[in-house]
Amino acid sequence: MIQNDFLIEIQLVGLTSRLKRLTDNILYSTKDFYKAVGVDIEPNWHLIFLLLKKHRELTVTEISERLQMSHPAIVKIIRNMKLKDYIGTKTDTTDSRKQLLYLTTKAELALPQLEKCWEACILTMEELLEGNEFFLKNLELIEEKIGKKSYKERTLKNLNRL
Amino acid sequence: MIQNDFLIEIQLVGLTSRLKRLTDNILYSTKDFYKAVGVDIEPNWHLIFLLLKKHRELTVTEISERLQMSHPAIVKIIRNMKLKDYIGTKTDTTDSRKQLLYLTTKAELALPQLEKCWEACILTMEELLEGNEFFLKNLELIEEKIGKKSYKERTLKNLNRL
DNA sequence: TACATTTGCGTAACTAGTTACGTAATTTAT
DNA sequence: ATAAATTACGTAACTAGTTACGCAAATGTA
């Protein structure tokens, strides 16, 4: 049991901050893990690797849609992956606005080691979810609700009812 | 049901990213909400307000411990709150390293309106957790596990077992 | 009392996301 | 065929967190 934790003490009020704290914790712990293993990638490169492995070539917009993140976020990630030579780009021949992204040979060669790391990450998630079988389903429920009507809209409506 | 969501498709692999996506979504939606209501504060000021309302005076270190965040994070938040004149500081008389933080009159006057906003936020969380009564308990379980042994340590051990 | 250690907090540099804006290429509409 | 609207993506400026480092004040120790 965590002692003296204000966020737990204040219950529902602290829930969003606890979620943020947890995800931040995992984020920086993952960085730490990569560093310890001597792998020179950032946590948020993981899904880009997976997407490009599966689809060979994707544009910035396609990736941002599939990950449901803003396109500038993807642009930033891609820039760093390019700097480390994990990603290459070429302009689409039929639409010169589009940048086709693909994994470089360096990336392909690194994949086996990376995939082992990611497997270890999955094992950790399984550990953390042990006795928590509904967590994923519960999360999906929340995602669905928020997808249908945003947190902001809901809160505005709730405020007007007070 | 969310369509074509790569993060859901890949199951456990996408879980941490989904949690991050959810907390980011709530974060920016909360900003949006404050803006819509015409309240000039940031989401992460909320807990500082609550702590200082409860304890009158706290130091940077005390706040960072209670929220379990790094002290530079608190320093940054406080700086912005000071710029908007919601927080005042005075140097501790017995230990001149310590900065005592307190809510200004402007903050005290703003509190009633803010508290109404936060009440609306709680109602929203209740909505989102409807049919999800175990979510909080489940979250606490994960926090406990990660508190005992970090995500990094767990993953390193899992990697060695592969 | 002098010196080493610890504590408090501030800054710098970094990743990580957002919204807002701009521009060029493509598509649509008139 | 030309003008308008849309799309793709890049940049800027912002909040939000971290780790690493530095310095001065306080504390512990010889």
TrEMBL record, chains A, B:
Coiled coil: none annotated. The keyword DNA-binding applies. Pfam families: MarR_2. This is MarR family winged helix-turn-helix transcriptional regulator. It comes from Flavobacterium frigoritolerans. Keywords: DNA-binding, Transcription, Transcription regulation. The keyword Magnesium does not apply. One of its GO terms (molecular function) is DNA binding. It comes from the Bacteria. Residues 40-97 form the HTH marR-type domain.
